[in-house]
Specification:
The chain contains five helices and four strands, in the order βαβαββααα. It is 50% helix and 19% strand. It has one domain: Metalloproteases ("zincins"), catalytic domain (Collagenase (Catalytic Domain), 3-Layer(aba) Sandwich), CATH 3.40.390. The protein has helices at 20-33, 48-59, 87-96, 101-116, 124-143, and strands spanning 5-10, 38-46, 67-71, 79-86.
Length: 144
């Protein structure tokens, strides 16, 4: 059985993720609830500028985003990925949606894993499903 590896890296930013051990355990459970296994996921918390640079270089997109997810595993295999998160964008979204940074950073962390579990967010229908799942996992994480 594969031992899941979830690592958090910080490039010039330091979001307040207090209990990272509990968060890692929850992410493993989230994946299992979605019928997936985690092999290795690197969450890289960084700046708007860095995420924009990655967006331009690898996706040919020229806009800011809060998260970019790079799956590195073959279909049917344990999830392996790098996930880049702009803490600046998360902070702006938290203010715009009056949700608080702590809730919003966790939403984005879960959002990245949900993408890796096969969920999309391009259509309005997919966005609604993604939001429902994010809300579900936020409730489970913060309120059991």
């Amino acid at each position: 059985m594969l031992n899941p590896s979830i690592c958090f890296f910080f490039e010039g930013v330091r979001p307040n993720l207090r209990d990272r051990t509990a968060l890692k355990q929850f992410l493993v459970k989230l994946a299992a609830r979605e019928g997936k296994r985690i092999g290795a996921i690197n969450y890289i918390f960084t700046t708007d500028a860095r995420v924009l640079e990655i967006n331009r270089a690898y996706l040919n997109h020229h806009d800011y985003t809060d998260i970019i997810t790079f799956p590195l595993h073959d279909a049917g295999k344990a999830i392996t990925a790098d996930i880049y998160i702009s803490t600046e964008r998360v902070r702006e979204n938290a203010a715009a949606f009056s949700s608080g940074f702590k809730k919003e950073i966790h939403r984005v962390v879960f959002h990245g894993l949900l993408h890796l579990c096969g969920y999309k967010d391009k259509s309005q229908k997919d966005q609604l499903q993604m939001r429902r799942l994010e809300d579900k996992y936020l409730r489970l994480y913060f309120h059991g």
